[in-house]
């Protein structure tokens, strides 16, 4: 069992947060899941582990989503697919290299852009706090230089963005989206496709693309399925709020 003190979440969620990851061969022990000094507890359980599922439920933990880890070999990417070719021909993928360029993206991100996010769906937090968390994450990644952030440009207009990091020859797609005012067009598939197009256009050595998707986000899961991604792992996410002073 791995326990992580998520100190960075204090500025995102105004909460003291701990995350527990259940590992292979762990056995359920109710005494290990009491965190009275934490406001918000997240427990990630490998799918099918019924002992933890029932045990956490008995402790008033709530399952809020499943996280699907998915991957695809870049050499097998469907670049010749009709829809992929269409959006590729219409867009540029441009590195975000200045604070002003990053701010342009952050200003276009609206509270309902990630409406399947577990923080968004949690009435204790809600849409505004969810968006604050995403913005802070992107700013931190940019400042630390730990991820690449790019904007998606169509006919001179920035219509979306994506963020990824390289881990050896593996590309980890962290976050991406099309801004709300452009979501009714044909560009939704750019959310999963953009990192692959960027790697191809820039001749970046990569063998595998991977990402993590919430089970709450069926539209994006459908797109990854369309592109032939395989599911490598499913993790159930349980949460609990330790309410203090009768506040919510």
From TrEMBL:
Top-level taxonomic group: Bacteria
Name recorded for this polypeptide: Conserved domain protein
Lineage of origin: Bacteria, Pseudomonadati, Bacteroidota, Bacteroidia, Bacteroidales
């Amino acid at each position: 069992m791995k326990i992580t003190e998520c100190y960075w979440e204090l500025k995102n969620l105004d909460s003291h947060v701990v995350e527990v990851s259940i590992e292979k061969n762990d056995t359920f022990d109710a005494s290990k899941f009491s965190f009275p000094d934490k406001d918000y507890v997240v427990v990630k359980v490998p799918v099918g582990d019924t002992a933890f599922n029932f045990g956490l439920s008995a402790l008033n933990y709530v399952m809020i989503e499943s996280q699907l880890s998915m991957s695809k070999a870049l050499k097998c990417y469907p670049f010749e697919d009709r829809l992929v070719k269409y959006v590729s021909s219409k867009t540029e993928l441009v590195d975000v290299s200045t604070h002003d360029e990053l701010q342009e993206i952050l200003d276009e991100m609206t509270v309902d852009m990630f409406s399947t996010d577990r923080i968004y769906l949690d009435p204790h937090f809600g849409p505004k706090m969810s968006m604050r968390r995403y913005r802070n994450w992107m700013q931190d990644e940019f400042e630390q230089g730990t991820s690449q952030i790019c904007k998606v440009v169509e006919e001179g207009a920035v219509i979306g963005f994506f963020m990824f990091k390289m881990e050896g020859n593996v590309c980890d797609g962290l976050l991406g989206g099309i801004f709300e005012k452009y979501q009714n067009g044909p560009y939704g598939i750019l959310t999963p496709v953009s990192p692959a197009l960027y790697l191809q256009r820039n001749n970046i050595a990569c063998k595998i693309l991977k990402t993590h998707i919430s089970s709450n986000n069926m539209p994006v899961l459908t797109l990854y399925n369309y592109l032939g991604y395989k599911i490598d792992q499913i993790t159930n996410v349980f949460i609990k709020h330790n309410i203090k002073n009768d506040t919510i």
